[in-house]
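Handout for the seminar on molecular recognition.
Each group receives one record of this type.
Step one: identify the two inputs.
Step two: read the structure output and locate the region that could contact flavin-adenine dinucleotide.
Step three: write two sentences on what you found, then compare them with the reference statements printed after the record.
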Amino acid sequence: MTGLLIVGASQAGVQLVASLRALGFDEPITLLGEENHRPYQRPALSKEFLQDKVGKESLIFRSQEYWDEHRVDLVKGQRIERIERRADGSGTAHAASGRAFAFDRLALAVGARARRLEVDGAGLAGVLYLRNADDALALKAAMPAARDVVVIGGGFIGLEAARSAHALGKRVTVLEAGPRLVGRAVGEETSEYFLRAHRAAGLDIRLGAQVARFVGDDGDGGRLTGVELADGEVIPAQIALVGIGVVPNTELAEQMGLAVDNGIVVDRYARASDGATVAVGDCANLPNPVPGSPAGERLRLESVNNAVEQAKVAAYSVVGRREEYAGIPWFWSNQGDLKLQIAGLSLGHDATVVRRDDARGKFSVLYYRAGRLIAADCVNHPLDFMAVKNALAQGATIPADLVADAAVPLKGLARPA
Ligand SMILES: Cc1cc2nc3c(=O)[nH]c(=O)nc-3n(C[C@H](O)[C@H](O)[C@H](O)COP(=O)(O)OP(=O)(O)OC[C@H]3O[C@@H](n4cnc5c(N)ncnc54)[C@H](O)[C@@H]3O)c2cc1C
């Protein structure tokens, strides 16, 4: 019997352990995941790791000594398929292997999985995804023999991987079904900036591109040779990397009868609808944590920062204290020479101001909602990023009429909201 069973041994689960031990939580913890790797950081998988700039060992979060010292039973390679619970919140998690894990308390840190593209030829060798270490190892192994890489999906991971493949000397085409790049996460100005910059760097980017099927040399069992578009064009490819978003892993929560709506629904304290289970990271749907957001606005965030901050909140809940999300959500994405940092959430913005300094390769967009600063996308501009992040953290705004001149630093312009 363990005190706390954490299902999902990745960014959120690892942070939950660290925060609980820092708070003095003394009970046995089992950190369990289905992957056969020690918990590792994902961001480099599409960047430095793919480009052979860092090795696998450098991505591992903690040594075995850490887990031993912190009295954590790290269980790898076990997929939980069913969870039985008693009225007091304790229960037993059943793995596909037949093993059972009894617990007093449960945390779900099960993350998300890559959305599959179900078109003809999806089973061909060379059609790949990038969510976990095994995916990244398969992609890396396929790279040397590939000349043409087609990336399907112009979101963060697709663009990061596209620039990595390009840096490895591949001919890269990006197929985005929507009208602009990274449409879910950034505004039009940032999309446009990325489009121009990636094209200038040598990527062939097609917007509004519909994949009809994958073409192979020998039916569905063969190797990929190209990607066919709806208009009949076949783009040569030995690798097709599909990066069309993720699906939160909510099956266990559903089976337990917890509220689920684009993720496991949690309150400000990371508690699921039963009040006992905590759910954290990419799998959780939480109230918008940005100060001043409309009551009842909810969202699911897919970022390291969110996994870390929510895990801290959840740790307080597990020890019976109430602490809300601290700080402002932020995110980064490195795409070749473009270092994007996002502070805040642009959800619901009704105005933007662009700050552009082409001579120095800097670009920022500030987002406003009802006259109040809510977020910024900053490309190669850490000073703008820090200024906005600090202003938001203080509950302040930076008036839109003061920011248009990119030569004027944002630092010092914050005013009470
Ligand atoms: C290639 C890539 C690049 C990224 N780059 C960035 C970046 O630059 N910046 C940034 O902020 N974020 C980035 N992210 C996102 C970031 O990595 C995620 O937000 C973060 O990993 C979420 O952590 P998590 O613990 O919630 O979920 P996950 O990392 O998805 O981990 C969930 C774990 O739970 C396991 N699991 C699921 N179901 C079960 C089950 N039933 N039984 C047992 N185990 C189970 C899974 O196998 C997985 O190991 C990137 C992600 C990827 C894939």
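Reference statements: The domain at 337-416 is CATH 3.30.390.30 (Enolase-like; domain 1). The chain has three domains: 2-113+247-318, 116-244, 337-416.
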